[in-house]
Every structure is written in structure tokens, then in C-alpha cells.
User: Fold this.
Amino acid sequence: DAGAIMFTGSHEYIYNATFINCTAAGRGGAVFLQDNHNVTFELCVFENNYAKGIANNTWANYTQERNEANDDTKVDYKLTGHGGAVAFDVNAKDCKIIDSNFTQNLARRNGGALNFDDGSTNNMVKNCRFDNNTVYDDGGAINFGKGSDFCSIIDTIFYNNTGQGRFTSTTKGGTICLEGSNITIDGSKFILGAAYANVTEGAKLNQTDGGALFVTGNYVNITNTEFDSCYAPNYAGAIKVIGNYIKVDNCTFENCTMNGVVNLIMDTDVTDFVAIEDCTYDFDATTDVIASEDNENHYVNATKLKSPAVDSVVDISSSEKGSAI
Assistant:
């Protein structure tokens, strides 16, 4: 792990540092952090770093010696290859990424630029830029693992980040994969985010969802954010939602597509209480705004960009699959 620096412990402050062309066999192409609280990266640059995911020294319970006879102490390659630039290990909390740039980083598994592993809470990305980062599994720019609650993304630009769906992996979230709850995304831009599936290598085209965001947690608020030219081949060009109490407020969707069909929202039959308020879109018909398999407990108030005087309450029982969300 860690192509350049590994941190263990808390209260670290990394300021005005540049990481270029770093490679890790395991996690964190440039930086890997373990057992961390209160770590801040400010005014840092991460460019062309790679987490290869071929390390043979990683197992679930790293506090114990390696023992191939037990599941939690035998080598698990799926635990490696996360965070093309930076990888936070399980239970990282109160960490901040501020005013930093991530460009052309690559991860074999999750988080093309950043990976927050399971149980990481109260972490923030603010005033950053992510350009041309790539992942072969989930989250072309950032992956938030299971239980990554109370995290936030503020005033951040994402441009041309992609999930490639390679080596039998199936991409969820071309730009960001969110598996935590109580997440806030505000004042940000998602441009040319895309999820792809390399079916010749075993990726599942019918599970490749969310060109910009794949959301599985509850109580997620997405506000004052723009989605432009995002794509997924299956569900949701911009946002795939599998969660409850999701709010999308004052957002704009332009040119977001899935499989050649333009829609706004996709929420499955396990999703409840979704509100889309004061949003605008550029699609050709109001029936393209939202696609849902469950038409209960959803509220949509979306206005067409080309006809701003039209204020439509949309039929969410549409059979389309939701190119944007």
C-alpha cells in the first residue's frame, strides 16, 4: 500500500504537496491512511497515480497474522486496488480534502481518485477538482464505502471521470459511488461522468448504473448542483437512487442519457420518499423526467429549461429507466 506515503494515526495535516506518477501494488496510489482521524489535505495536487490491486499482503483482519485457513486472515485481493490517489482505510473520520486537484488517477477497484472504506464518517471534500480519473469498478472519482455516513461534497467540479467496468467488475457510479447515509452534495458540477461495461471481460451491462452518482444510502441531499452530459448504459445517466428520503433540490440536468433514452430520475421499488424540487431539465417530454418502478411517496416539481414557464408535476410511473437519476 501507498506509492509515496503511508500515515497511521491521527491529526495529520498535508499542505501544498504534489504527488505525481506514484504507484502502489495495493491501496492508495500515492497515499494510504490507516487508523486515521482528523486528517486534512489542503492545496494538494494528485496526478497520474495508480492503485494496481495486486498486493498479496492484505487480509480483512490486519491486526492478526496471515493465516490462509481463516477467511479474515487470508489474502483477499478484493481489498486492494482502491483509491488511485488516496485511500482511507476503514473507520476513517473527520477527514478533509480542501482546495485540491485530482487528475488522471486510476484504481483497479474502487475510487479512481479517492476511496473512503467502510465505516468512514464525517469526511468532507470541498472546493476541489477531479478531472479524467478512472476506475475499473465503482466510483470513477470517489467511492464512499458502506456506512460512510455524514460525509459531504461541497463546491467541487467533476469533469470526465469514468467507471470502465473491467476485469469482471460492474461499475456503479461513473463519478461517485455513495453507500453511506446522511450525505450532502452541494454547489457542485458533474460533467461528462460516465459508467461503462466491458462485457467481454465479464462486466454486467444490466447492472451498470449512474453516470454521475450511484446512491444506496438514506437521507441524501443533493442541492444546487449541475449535471451535464452524463451517461450510463443501463439505469440513470446522472443519478441512480436505491435509498429512502432522498432530496434533489435546485439542480439542473442537461444532455444526460442512458442507452440512448433521455430521462431524469430512476428509483427502484425499494426506494421511498424521494423529492425532486425546483429542478430544471432540457428533455423533450415531461414523461422523460422520471422513471420509477414504484409510484408511491415521491414528489416531483421540475421545469423544462427550454420552456421555463412550464411547471410540471411528472408521472413517475413511467416505464423508462432514468437517464439522469
